[in-house]
Fold this protein.
Amino acid sequence: GAGVSQSPSNKVTEKGKDVELRCDPISGHTALYWYRQSLGQGLEFLIYFQGNSAPDKSGLPSDRFSAERTGGSVSTLTIQRTQQEDSAVYLCASSLGTGSHTDTQYFGPGTRLTVL
Amino acid sequence: AQSVTQLDSQVPVFEEAPVELRCNYSSSVSVYLFWYVQYPNQGLQLLLKYLSGSTLVKGINGFEAEFNKSQTSFHLRKPSVHISDTAEYFCAALRGGGADGLTFGKGTHLIIQP
């Protein structure tokens, strides 16, 4: 079966533009996570979805960042008015979402965002 | 204080030698602990996880880790490494307070020398 997929794989944008990153979780996985991987900060948790709701948005770095999930499947992470410090690899992960926080998270290949 | 600490940013090892990658965690995270591997140009892959029970956890590719509560450690070991083990290794823990999502260490780059 297919794993977690993310698109685009690479995105180059100009400072101040908005970008949208997409994540397709593994079929049947109800839990979905976004992380950011950057040289300076390492891997950081951004947001978690259970179904379509996001009970934990505590990791979003600013109000320029938002995420949604529709139909309990695809999720989009939107960054408005991008800044150079937003340059990073954005990773998506999904898990079964059985209610146990210990379900294995399966990661996608990531979207590399470069803000010029 | 950092909640998951990987003290070694790089570990060079000769092929077929044993290796240990160190990980320590703080009380701010849960004791649900994970090791992930990231091969060059690939996504993160779970090596093993500790949830409860036996403190020695065996994972894929011959890796194992030992949970040590008194030393707040979860070190990763392999008795004999191969060139194909060259990768970035991340220790992680579920965030504390019942929150979802993982908190990661900074990663250790394992370099296998022929």
Residues 18 and 71 of chain A are 24 Å apart (CA to CA).
